[in-house]
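Can anyone check this?
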Amino acid sequence: MLRPMILSESELGALVEVRHASPHDLLGMHPLGDRAGVVVRAFAPGAERVSVVPVHAGAARPFDLERLHEGGVFEGVSKTTRDVFAYDLVITWPDGHKSRSRDAYSFLPSVGEIDLFLFGQGREQRIYEKLGAHLRTFDGVPGASFAVWAPNAQRVSVVGDFNHWDGRRHLMRRLGASGVWEIFVPGVGEGALYKYEVRDASGRIVLKTDPYGFFFEPAPKNASIVWDTRKHSWSDGDWLARRAGLNALNSPMSVYEVHLGSWRKKSVAQSFSYRELAGPLIDYVRRVGFTHVEFLPVSEHAFYPSWGYQVTGFYSPTCRYGTPDDFQHLVNALHEAGIGVIVDWVPAHFPRDDWALARFDGTSLYEHEDPRRGAHMDWGTLIFNYGRHEVRNFLGANALFWCDRYHVDGLRVDAVASMLYLDYSKKEGEWLPNEHGGKENLEAISFLREFNHDVHTSFPGVVTIAEESTAWGMVSRPPYVGGLGFSLKWNMGWMHDTLGYFKRDPVHRQYHQNELTFAMLYHAQENFLLPLSHDEVVHGKGTLAGRMPGDDWQRFANLRCLLAYQWVFPGKKLLFMGGEFGQTREWNHNSELDWWLLNEGPYHAGTLRLVTDLNVVYRAQAALWEADYSAFGFRWIDCTDRAQSVLSFARFRQNGSDPVVVILNLTPVLRTGYRVGLPEGGHWSELLNTDAATYGGSNQGNLGGLDAEALPWHDQPYSAPFTLPPLSVLIFGRTSPPSDR
């Protein structure tokens, strides 16, 4: 064997010292050009011997490679052909063991030039199919391709249990100026553990998890896991087809917000898996009547007490409750049961863990370099650089990924206000203005509009929901009219005012009735969702039941009024788990809800029956949801009786038909013969009374309903004298005029 060429000292050194940026240029098989033959080079540190064995008979004869350097560089020549051919490397190790596989350096890149171009423009919507780890078969050879964006790295290797975590074994190649590094490793299958070994911009060697990883090891370990998220057999096609033709704004939506680890537990220390949770959760949600569940972030997070809001694996459901297949099973089962699935999505920030996104290639890659732009002071986290195309692509494709691979029906976007304002929770000198001198984060605004457009056009029927607590305009209006493009916005003002009202002693409520009525002054500005979320039962706030004044009877009567008011007020509904039965202990993510309370007296079980019946009435009465955002959908009957803390209003369908009348008596005083105006004549039936005995109330009310009298009242053409139970909400629906019965 004659050596056809000698690697330069710098090339040889770059291989041996594991710092070459394009190892495929040197390693693998290459034609000799004008001279007959091919040259093969391999980098196999620690090997005793390396041989080349053609895969197909007749291509060439097997031949050995000669050691060029004690560091493990081998080279050999075959003069029997001018053309490269498929071959295996057979490596003999010092203990006599032999390994045989296709040479990882004999394959073309798995990421194409168009993919890289679109990624550089921030517009490769399915970049998760290109970057990350993917099971593929090239030239008949099964294995896994790995690709990662690290433009300022000096060298990147993929390491894992398939190469003994040795960064010398699979050096990746840099694909031009894209900053993407790539390699295909034959023989790697599903379940393989891996990380990226990065020689960063400063020359420091760090191990990083895959930003596009589909699955991860349980904390405190953090290796990524090769996984195929495409193999699940979905059976929710009918659901998806119906969803695509649905307008969420004029459809019923009552959302049950769930933390997967603490809804129910198998034991004190063990949560249910996704699959184990499917049965009991579906049974419960169907029985209580919620239309959707919303999961607190399911994306991988190392710090469990963050509840998922400090994401370390944006493309992976957390491994705490099972595999990606298991989460797909849960979503599929919920869809088959007619229940929508919303997940919390966290594009506002990410934690500083040195093995994850932070300073990924030794520079501020995903975040801003300047902490005045790149750091959240309150949360100790880092802010995404929304002005960088590849970062926008990472986040935007991630939203589409959850819709694509996991069939979710909605994304509730966390902390939108922190994205919109450069000075969010920062003092003077801690933030930098935008190019116009303002405090608006122009890049984040542009990103949110783009994200909403892409989700709504790619997955019709999927809703996007903004947790946004400021007076920012047109959050839920389309981008083409200057809005951010969300489907819905949390009504934090309604939540704050309503809870503020209900925690007051009833004797003082006459002075604060505006807290219940104010939300209608701005209701037309957005498509609102009314949240009583997890944020209201943590950090010393207690629980919804615990905020209510009075003895046990009054506390639960007030809680029933609060929940009923939420269900009948315009806007979609969200209730955090435990609120539906009056949990009295502040939520603890380490323990399950206090289900035993349902066996303790009438109030908790009664509250659960109330919420169940509220959902029944809500779904059955289109006036309570069809025109949530229409000027025709709501009309105050009377909101001026502050002295007695009584309010009344009517809800209508979009065409003004089938009215529902709601009356609230928010003091513990029974009122009889209280006349209320009615929009139509006929018989009005009591659809729901929060004071019913079955809910734990005093059982006062209007059993049998009332006939409207042709006596104008409250600017309405009809009226009737009602019995208003103490601390109650009454819901009435019209059946038929007396003459028709």
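Reply from J.R.: I decoded it. The two ends are 106 Å apart (CA to CA).
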